[in-house]
Design goal:
Elements: E1 5-6, E2 8-11, H1 27-39, E3 44-48, H2 54-66, E4 71-77, H3 80-89, E5 96-103, H4 106-113, H5 117-132, E6 138-143, H6 150-162, E7 167-172, H7 179-192, E8 200-205, H8 212-221, E9 226-229, H9 243-252, E10 259-260, H10 268-279, H11 300-308, E11 328-330, H12 336-345, H13 353-369, E12 373-374, H14 375-390, E13 394-402, E14 410-417, E15 420-427, H15 431-443, E16 448-456, E17 465-473, E18 476-484, H16 487-503
Parallel strand pairs: 1-10, 2-3, 2-9, 3-4, 4-5, 5-6, 6-7, 7-8, 8-9
Antiparallel strand pairs: 11-12, 13-14, 14-15, 16-17, 17-18
Helix pairs in contact: 1-2, 1-10, 2-3, 5-6, 6-7, 7-8, 8-9, 13-14, 15-16
Bound molecules: 3-methyl-2-oxobutanoic acid and zinc ion (ZN).
């Protein structure tokens, strides 16, 4: 990064990303993602909203206690109890930040907060002071800044900088802004806030108009030196600015940007896969940087050009963002050491020997069915092992499905539920419908099925099928996943994984709801 200013990357996959309906993550999943972000050298990891629930508090605390190389941040509304809870969760962090926010747009102040502009300024400054008594790094966001009066924003920003905020984050909360105007807003705020030189300006853009990355980059060209983003653009509604797109745009166009990040971009694709695997949000094939087709040259003319000289059609190298060949690695006779070594090369580590043994057992079962095992199979297998461990209340012990031309499809299963094994069976429109109905007879949960989708992880008819099931229960949305070479088994696993989430007690506050 010669003679370049630093662009700070603030990842909010574990906080704003998790606010995406169905993307909620367990503590262990958050730790796995946080470790991957740390490995990628992300500067700040926003680990969650500690006041939301005891589970959210524990997750932020666990990330803070684990991560040593990145700064760990907790979100807090401008409320004393939120700030104190965030401070508590972050106590064990090597480097901590509290991110507090209060809305500044006329509509939010009048309709949501019912506060006058002066009350907002006073409240914001008081919260920042309180947070500064707990940690030495405080960020303030004027929520819905993109629809706020710029001169009022300058007054708010001046007050919170005086109170000790060292990062001022300008959110386009509802994704309303467009690049030229948003860039000018950032330049205006930096120019017209008297003490702006004492803080780093940051941006946090939502993608409702598909402009989150463009707005973020325009802000960077106008003086922002922190971008808040998420892996795969996950986030509330249409999502947040995608980390991989922001980072690679800045890296690829160093002729234009006066700054660069410290990120190890080769970790981008592994991180994208990890987040997609954990949340069950697939990455569209034509997604920039991390989509399966992002570096695939199908047209003959393009391929010819690329073969002659790569730069004719490629502006980035696939290896630089972590695409590796989907290597044929292991088979039936591969031993435990070969299995462990390849997983380590893929950046997958186990917390205990028992977890490694469980995954190795599954690998042997898979190798009996599928002779050639690729990296992608290994990733799916490990995700599936972790998903199984997550299923606390309901487990699939065994199942069989029967389909025959002219006969009604049937399924039978043994399900572990409420501490005992229960046999069940049903008929259905097809084998998947039959096994879902058989499970329903045991679990009796009134969840509504919103989505059922199957993806092939590797090529071929012996490939692992990865199934996602999305349910709505008690007004909340949850995703379940399962993988297996038999897609009926994968479907049953995915349904059971989603039902386990549906049956967990959920008491969770949303950060943008004022209580
Ligand atoms: O979109 C938003 O305004 C937020 C804030 C909490 C920064 O997520
Ligand atoms: Zn947001």
């Amino acid at each position: 990064m010669k003679n370049k200013e630093k662009l700070i990357i603030f990842d909010t996959t574990l906080r704003d990303g998790e606010q995406s309906p169905g993307a909620s993550m367990t503590k262990d999943e958050k730790i796995r993602i946080a470790k991957a972000l740390e490995k990628m050298r992300v500067d700040v990891i926003e680990a969650g909203f500690p006041i939301a629930s005891p589970g959210d508090f524990e997750s932020v605390k666990a990330v803070a206690d684990t991560i040593t190389e990145s700064r760990v941040c907790g979100l807090a509304r401008s409320l004393d109890r939120d700030i104190d809870r965030a401070g508590e969760a972050l106590k064990g962090a090597a480097a901590a930040r509290i991110h507090t926010f209060l809305a500044t747009s006329p509509i939010h102040m009048q309709e949501k907060l019912r506060m006058t502009p002066d009350e907002v300024i006073e409240n914001a400054a008081r919260s920042v002071k309180r947070a500064r008594n707990l940690v030495d790094d405080v960020e303030f966001s004027p929520e819905d800044a993109g629809r706020s009066d710029p001169d009022f924003l300058c007054r708010v920003i001046e007050a919170v900088i005086k109170a000790g905020a060292r990062t001022i984050n300008i959110p386009d909360t509802v994704g309303y802004n467009v690049p030229d105007q948003f860039g000018k807003l950032i330049a205006y705020l930096i120019e017209n806030t008297p003490n702006s030189d004492q803080a780093i300006f940051s941006v946090h853009c939502h993608n409702d108009l598909g402009l989150a990355v463009a707005n973020s980059l325009s802000a960077v060209l106008n003086g922002a030196r922190q971008v808040e983003c998420t892996i795969n653009g996950l986030g509330e509604r249409a999502g947040n600015a995608a980390l991989e797109e922001v980072v690679m745009a800045v890296r690829t166009r160093q002729d234009i940007f006066p700054c660069d990040t410290d990120l190890d971009t080769t970790q981008i694709v592994p991180c994208s896969r990890l987040v997609s695997g954990i949340t069950g949000f697939p990455v569209q094939p034509n997604k920039a940087i991390v989509g399966a087709n992002a570096f695939a040259h199908e047209s003959g003319i393009h391929q010819d050009g690329v073969l002659k000289k790569r730069e004719t059609y490629e502006i980035m190298r696939a290896q630089d963002v972590g695409w590796t060949e989907n290597r044929l690695v292991l088979g039936k006779h591969s031993g435990r050491n070969a299995f462990r070594t390849r997983l380590q090369e893929l950046g997958i580590e186990f917390d205990s020997e028992e977890e490694l043994n469980a995954a190795f057992g599954r690998f042997k079962e898979l190798a009996d069915k599928k002779h050639e095992i690729y990296d992608d199979d290994l990733q799916a297998l490990v995700t599936d092992t972790n998903l199984e461990a997550e299923n606390e209340q309901i487990k699939l012990i065994s199942m069989r499905a029967h389909v025959e031309t002219g006969e009604i499809p049937q399924a039978q299963a043994i399900i572990w539920f409420k501490g005992k094994e229960i046999a069940t069976n049903s008929t259905g429109a097809g084998p998947v419908d039959a096994i879902f109905k058989a499970i329903d007879k045991v679990v009796k949960c009134d969840a509504e099925l919103l989505l059922y989708s199957v993806n092939n992880i590797t090529n071929g008819t012996d490939a692992i099928g990865d199934v996602t099931v999305r349910l709505r229960h008690d007004g909340q949305i949850m995703n379940g996943q399962g993988s297996d070479t038999d897609i009926v088994v994968a479907s049953a696993k995915a349904y059971i994984n989603a039902l386990n989430k549906a049956l967990k007690p959920k008491e969770r506050a949303h950060p943008q709801a004022r209580v």
